[in-house]
Amino acid sequence: MKTLRQTLLLLAIVAVGISAAAQEADPVIASIRQAYDKACQTIKRGDKNARNEMVSTLKYQVPGSGQVTETFRFFSRLEVFGENNEFTNYALYFVTRQYKIAGRKYYEEYLFNRNSTPIFVFKQGYDEAGKKTEKRLYYQNGTIYSVVGELTETYEAEISYAYATEFRQAFDNLIRNAKE
């Protein structure tokens, strides 16, 4: 009986180890995590050409909930190119979004690759029962690759990707108009 327990315990430990190793070995998720860590370090360090920050705050009324304040923080890299460095571009790589509705705080992060295409979304919020939730959505080539956490709706991954794309477009429009 003791040997059977030891064997079952050993098998359980091995199964957990294999499962964890399989998740860590995924090259797509590993590269996205590496890009996420690099973006967070860049933001924290405040590199001159890699940490340009633009903040946008929206205030509006929601019936039954009152005033909502949404704060967006856009982080971009300044890219200079051309024969005489006469051209500049601000490449978006990270966006945060914070807002509060009916006393509940929501927080989201959007990570973009070198082409400013969304590759990762992190969301903290609440489900319909009021339970706090966290979700991590990994994208590859414009489609959902992996999800950590339970999606509220079957189309939530697509909506999150669409939001990320809209945030990138809004950033591009704000930067372009600021230059003119």
Question: Characteristics of this structure?
Answer:
seven-stranded antiparallel beta sheet, 3 helices
Protein model, in words:
This protein is α+β, with helices and mostly antiparallel strands and 180 residues long. It has one domain (27-179). The protein is built from 3 helices and 7 strands. It has helices at 2-25, 27-45, 156-179; strands at 52-62, 66-81, 87-101, 104-112, 118-126, 132-140, 143-148. Strands 1-2-3-4-5-6-7 form a 7-stranded antiparallel beta sheet. A hairpin with a 3-residue loop joins β1 and β2. The model is unreliable at 8-12 and 14-22 (pLDDT under 50).
Residue-averaged pLDDT: 83
Shape: globular
Spatial ordering of strands, largest sheet:
1-2-3-4-5-6-7
Total number of distinct structural domains: 1
- The level of helicity is 25-40%
Q: Which percent range describes the beta-strand content?
A: 35-45%
The parts where pLDDT drops under 50 for at least 5 residues are 8-12, 14-22
How many DSSP E strands?
A: 7
How many helices in DSSP terms? Answer: 3
Cα separation of the termini: 79 Å
The sequence of SSEs as H and E is: HHEEEEEEEH
Structural classification: alpha+beta
Largest sheet: 7 strands, antiparallel
* Radius of gyration from the alpha-carbon trace, in angstroms: 21 Å
Q: Layout of helices and strands, plus pairs?
A:
Blueprint: H1 2-25, H2 27-45, E1 52-62, E2 66-81, E3 87-101, E4 104-112, E5 118-126, E6 132-140, E7 143-148, H3 156-179
Antiparallel strand pairs: 1-2, 2-3, 3-4, 4-5, 5-6, 6-7
